[in-house]
């Protein structure tokens, strides 16, 4: 079976040849099947965002390749949509216009766009805020606009950089359930970065564990707990076991980082 997304031996070097050169990713490889929900976990600064941006086509690797359905990617967009860590909203556009942005070329009528956009604004709990501007929103609300915008283009692959980090605990659980629903009902493929081990185990079919920088995927951990998952899932003994495997990995990598003198 062809992977929907495959990356092979990716190397990313920022400011190559300059004194401030940073080797962000080294020989990072992975394969993702359609309908999977993959989380990426690793020590701070190990190259997680760089990996996601490379998968989106925003960052060009110095070597290595990224393919979707066997075809090399040429840039952002197409079957992918990204939720950025810093939200990346357009400040001069309202919430509605931000969410509608990706639909300009969709061929939908004005009314169809309105219904579609409002569906996703409601999904993220922002009904009533559609005419507000980003500066009138809290950090968590801006993050939800970013999520609605990515979901609204209904991409095959959703790339999400710490999508729930600025969102309060209660809304976060609702958003997590939405992601699960969309993944299961619509067979979307989701790849997301998180610092929350609990979130990674709860949502993921597999967790990619990364080494310290230059990052590569050192462990590909299958979370063998059937979907749909509910809050009770969290009290299963295997849920706790997966959490401790990830925690021990992170502890070992951060210790390595300390020994290298990089913290
Ligand atoms: N555009 C850039 N130019 C130069 N260096 C960069 C750039 N983007 C990232 N870096 C560096 O590359 C390394 C990896 O950064 P990246 O943001 O991918 O890590 P991360 O694992 O997502 O970090 P965090 O967990 O803190 O969000 C870091 O040392 C960072 O400073």
Q: Order of strands side by side in the largest beta sheet? A: 6-7-8-3-9-10
What is the CATH superfamily classification of the largest domain? Answer: P-loop containing nucleotide triphosphate hydrolases
What are the low-pLDDT stretches, counting only 5+ consecutive residues below 50? Answer: none
The count of strands amounts to 10
CATH architecture of the largest domain: 3-Layer(aba) Sandwich
Radius of gyration: 19 Å
The general outline is globular
Provide a descriptive summary of the structure in words.
- By secondary structure, the chain is an alpha/beta fold.
- The protein has 2 domains: 180 residues, P-loop containing nucleotide triphosphate hydrolases (Rossmann fold); 66 residues, no CATH class.
- The longest helix is centred in the C-terminal third of the chain and has 23 residues.
- The model has no long low-confidence stretch (mean pLDDT 91).
- Adenosine-5'-triphosphate binds next to strand 2 and helix 1.
Q: What keywords describe this structure?
A:
binds adenosine-5'-triphosphate; 10 strands; ABC transporter ATP-binding protein; 263 residues; Rossmann fold; four-stranded antiparallel β-sheet; ATP-binding; ABC_transporter-like_ATP-bd; nucleotide-binding
In short:
The protein is an alpha/beta fold and 263 residues long. The protein has helices at residues 48-56, 95-100, 110-123, 139-152, 169-186, 197-203, 237-259; strands at 5-14, 22-32, 37-41, 63-68, 71-72, 80-83, 157-161, 189-193, 206-210, 217-222.
